[in-house]
Design goal:
Chain lengths: 433, 143
Amino acid sequence: MIWNENAECMEREEKKEMQLALFQQQVKRVYENVPFYKKKFDEAGFHPDDLKTLDDVSKIPFTTKADLREAYPFGLFAVPDDEIIEIHSTSGTTGTPVVSGYTQKDIDIWGECTARAIAMAGGDKNSKIQNSYGYGLFTGGFGIDHGAKAMGATVIPMSAGNTARQLKIMEDFQSDILTCTPSYAMYLAESLEKEGYTADDISLHAGIFGAEMWTEEMRNNLEEKLGITAHNIYGLTELMGPGVSTECEYQTGLHIQEDHFYPEIIDSETGEVLEDGQKGELVLTNLTREGMPVIRFRTKDITALRRDECPCGRTTVRMDRITGRSDDMLKIKGVMVYPSQIEAAILQIEGLTANYQIHVSRPKTLDEIEVKVETSPEVFSDEMKKIEEFERKIARKIQSAIGISVDVTLVEPESLPRSEGKAIRVIDERNFD
Amino acid sequence: MSVKQLSVFLENKEGKLKKAVNAMSQAGVNIRALSIADSSKYGILRLIVSDNETAINALKEEKFTVKETDVIVVGVKDEPNGLNTMLEILEKESINVEYLYAFVSSKTDEAIVVVKIENYEDGVKALKDANANLLSEEDLAEL
């Protein structure tokens, strides 16, 4: 089902006109109301009147995560405080947190975007949505919640954690759609198996997973284990939260809600805007947000945009699943490596799960990578030589994916840290000081 | 005739062996024989125990990876040339031994050898044809 045909199936030219009008209005508003943007635009020699066509967008300076941190907590709000009705924040694991403020209209738009996402996953007002994203300052829980309510579906506000209860509710309430991080979905799927549940005990038909990177292999795994179609959802606290883009049933990329967000792909080194189909850093602009409009935000997420036709009928531009982050990228022995490449290689091997951890170290002068992978009865042998052979097989797969040699070590099942939020996949022990 | 050995994956970390042995002892499982193969990273604990099912459950409870493997258990004369006689039978048939370990019991004069052979059926046939004393799980239980 398409939730909002007018918006999601709009003609290309009509959409461009609308986006330009919204963009012009937005830069004018931030220039007048947010001293940060006035200063930034003035310094870059850009004036809102300079935005005459969408080609002029590249003249507007970027906003970075560092800018948002500097504005902590409320420095980028563009409306009087009394109009802000909800606040979210990043966890601040990589520095000062970033705060996001929303007006009533912003919350309505967020609900509209996640309602479109739920519809892409086959949901409607009859659906029971088990929302296992964390509720709180994190945007996951509330984002889905706003969409489910906008749609009139039934939201089961589980939040993350308490796995036994998650499984029981999933069975007792016959939840239709599961929403959580993909690593938590994997954990729930494994727990279902372990607790002796079968596909007949649960009636999930779709999952909407996001807030961390995952791979096609992990999707296949989740779809098979849970008997669902798994939809990738993308979003970020700085701009809104989940719902910026989502995959429809054809899984041809994530449809970006272009009436609210303006996407660009840039070369992360030069800042130059790239053509459709080229891989680079995603840059997003809030076209309609009132509370805290973010202009040309450098997401650090690596993807590409596609405008060819999607069989679903939506005309919105699609982005590829995120294949890395320009700052998650590891430079090992001078080679660019994304953890997702290693994960994809591991998941190609029968009997292995997505439970792995990458350790990067520099014992003397050279970088070394060790990949720890959990054993399972299927891959364990009573003979040392077979285990060592198996490790070499994994190492070869990874090497052919990333181009540098790695050391693989099997570890005991369930010995690597599981998280109910974002999994810790990389431990970089190199000291660059 | 077949005897199932348990193999347990152990990380090379302090207390891992103790944890595995403790899990079995708490479950009332008696270890009849054991050997450990090890590399710098981890070990494989191989065991003949009194009750496989109980041992497996106890080990899995503690998150160990456990596997059952068919091994051949042979009684050989506890004297010089005892083991050699058995190995000669296998050698004659060009059968490779993957690993073996042995133990003695106060209830028999024979030494008991646990052998892992790549092709279990071939090994059993060769030893049977040469009238070796193959022991079953029931035989082991009496020792």
